[in-house]
Amino acid sequence: MPFFLILMLAAYIGGNAYIFTRALQALPPMPAIFKWLFGLAYWGYALSIFLVFIFRARESADPWGHFFFQVSTGWLVFTLYMVLALVCFDLFRLLVPSFRHGFACALLVTTGVLAYGYYTYKHPQLREVDIITDRLPAGSLGLKIVGVSDVHLGLGTTRDDLSRYVDLINAQHPDIILISGDLIDNDVRPVDEAAMDEELNRLHATYGIYMVPGNHEYLSGIDACKRFIRGRTNIHLLMDSVATLPDGIRIVGRDDRTNTARKTLPELMNRIDTVVPIIVLDHQPTDLTQAERAGVDLIFCGHTHHGQVWPLNLATDRLFDVAYGYTRRGRTNIYVSSGLSLWGPPFRIGTRSELVVFRLIPAEL
């Protein structure tokens, strides 16, 4: 097991041991049997996250599975913020020895933070970006493009969630819909059982829906994902391939970098006339320099979730050249989305779920 995973495991177990010890200290006097029952319940919740990974291939799209998944993964974020809050109140007690309510205050603060995080997750914001290009033909009225990333359909993002997302996307009346990977979370089975293809097929865009795979499509089994997406939905899955749209627009869809044999961007673009608008879809924002050198109009990525919860966004900011948001380099517009949904814990703290609307505008307008 890599050293980093061992370190994370040790931090998680250690953090829960700290919370558990402080909880026992905060409990009023009671018979030992009740403390044992509390301990079994506490560690049952804390260790249930491992069952999510052990039984990943047996996921089923039922309410119990959804509840268990959210509680188990949610405990990761509870542990993080409860430890941070406890440390703050324990340090405060060093300054004010008479203070005796550190655990209760930490629990109250953590509950409030998680409630806020759940609200921000459930209420994605709309981002709008204008892309001005001289490559659209004269007289063109421009295009509206909706960008979506990291929906993670499965036990975390249910059919009801997807239905709300579809309504939100269709309300923008897009000409093109782009999905930058990780549409499916851990396995196709719960997506299939919940008939989520019926919701996906409600998506409507004048010139079609285009998607590239993410690392989670590979985690879920890339062959099964291809069969589901290409066989059951109206989504055009691009894997190291190029789609041609009206006005000559090219959408270059890169396979995920999980496939170490994927083509480079120059290889994919060697037969593209660069006088037409060029959009690149790439799940992970790791080859942005290639897009800049190629002079594409827009590269749209996801994957980072912008860390999802603070302070992990500080880590993603260090790991990626562009970890979130919009930037322009030369003629290339770069957008890395934080994702419409998320993986695992149902919280957004210090980040936001989002839907991105690009307006491709001719330079003369």
Automatic annotation (TrEMBL):
Gene3D superfamilies: 3.60.21.10. The keyword Chaperone does not apply. Pfam families: Metallophos (PF00149). GO terms for molecular function: hydrolase activity. Signal peptide: none annotated. CDD domains: MPP_YkuE_C (cd07385). Residues 143-306 form the Calcineurin-like phosphoesterase domain. This is Metallophosphatase. It comes from Tannerella sp. oral taxon BU063 isolate Cell 6/7/9. Keywords: Membrane, Transmembrane, Transmembrane helix. The keyword Membrane applies. The chain crosses the membrane at residues 33-55, 67-92, 98-119.
